[in-house]
Amino acid sequence: MNERLALDDLAVPLRVLRLLAADFGHLPAPEEIYVTTIYPDRLELRFHDDLANFEAWREALGIVPDHVVYREQGGGRTRVLKASGDYAGAVLELTGYGDVPAPVPVGTLR
């Protein structure tokens, strides 16, 4: 754990948040914006229930699809997409959560 930091020590991710608001203010707002003294050079944007919003940000930031990590949680009920990259001196991490579609029983499609 880091020793006690001052708010100035979080200047990099907070500056990046300001830049994102100015440059990408037209994009959907994340449900969570996360800055922590544990990782003072990181800004996390989290999108719940809509992977399209995650994708809009990924594309706008130029993160290639091959750099997206896919996993599932909640017993396979929730998709999780993660991608990260450097932006204006900070590590910018995007996380998207979405439901895994229920399987269609065999024989119901025609």
Fold and architecture overview:
This protein is an alpha+beta fold and 110 residues long. The protein has 2 helices and 5 strands. It has helices at 11-23, 51-60; strands at 32-34, 42-48, 69-73, 78-87, 90-99. The protein has a 5-stranded mixed beta sheet with strand order 1-2-5-4-3. The longest helix has 13 residues, at 11-23. The protein is elongated and about 60 Å long. The protein starts with 10 loop residues before the first helix and ends in an 11-residue tail after the last strand.
Topology:
Elements (H helix, E strand, L loop, with lengths): L10 H13 L8 E3 L7 E7 L2 H10 L8 E5 L4 E10 L2 E10 L11
Parallel strand pairs: 2-5
Antiparallel strand pairs: 1-2, 3-4, 4-5
Principal-axis shape equals elongated
Instruction: Provide the spatial order of strands within the biggest beta sheet.
Output: 1-2-5-4-3
Instruction: State the separation between the terminal residues, measured CA to CA.
Output: 57 Å
Low-pLDDT residue spans:
none
Task: Tell me the strand percentage band.
Answer: 25-35%
Q: Which structural class do you get from the secondary structure elements?
A: alpha+beta
**What is the average per-residue confidence, as pLDDT, rounded to a whole number?**
92
Count of extended strands: 5
**Percentage of residues in helical conformation:** 10-25%
**Sheet with most strands:** 5 strands, mixed
Total helix count? Answer: 2
Instruction: Using the CA coordinates, give the radius of gyration.
Output: 17 Å
